[in-house]
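User: structure tokens for this one?
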Amino acid sequence: MPLLLQHLITFCRVVETGGFARAGALVGLSQPAVTRQIAALEAELGIPLLDRSGRQIYPTPAGRLVYERARRIIAAVNSLKEEVADLAHPERGRVAIGVVTTVGLRLLPPILAAFKKEHPGIRVYVKADRTQETIERLLEGEIELAILPTPVTHPRLRSVPLMEDPVVLVCAPSRRAELPDPLPLEKLAEIDLISFQAPSRFRTFVDAMLEQAGVYPNVTMEFDSHEAVTLMVEAGFGCALVPASAVERELALGTLVRVEVEGMPRMARTTSLAFRHPNPGWSPATERLFQMVVDFFAQGG
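Assistant:
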């Protein structure tokens, strides 16, 4: 029996609900019809996809793989249908953009606000994740564009630079009074440093730059987001090396202050907008969002 899109949809609902009857209610099928579709899918792939040994149904290892791939296939088909329909109405449409959480939370809101004002009929879907996951989504076609903290190097991708994002040392105002002004580079290894967790691209970048300068930081706390790092620095538990874009608001409010480090090598990353290459053909909505992002940063953000 040929593999049908409906089989994949039904299978995903079974995995998500943990039962045939509940899945059937979502897709408009009887429980026996759901059972037949799952059996046909397993027969086509030649391997069990569900563990039915207990009261709850769980995907097997093969089932988890099929579930993840099926979700992407379903999303791609739905996207295709919408994009074809949108070709007749350029003022409408949809576009999916990915952002790395560390840069997207601060940079994307004003862009989306301006885009919505200018193009109210276009729906923008946002996927926030880590760098590698965002790149994978771009390669697989889940998103058309991606804002990344660094340029991307991949034969199937291209990127355009948006802005330079320097890495700065920050601390709470109360903590700043305890430090020399400016802070000698060698003293950087003596202060309590709150850092983005390792391994991560940002942490690897910072550690490598400091090591080149002969500095081995005393990291006392590690977190998996710049927001968590910022909160702990604001509470006075230490200093942090962070992208300037991640603390722009806190510096403006005065809850954090910048610490000048004498002799510290200049550290900066280039925030970039990535897309697939060769370009398979963008929808009008994607073209407009691409131009909006580029223009926004060209005008100084």
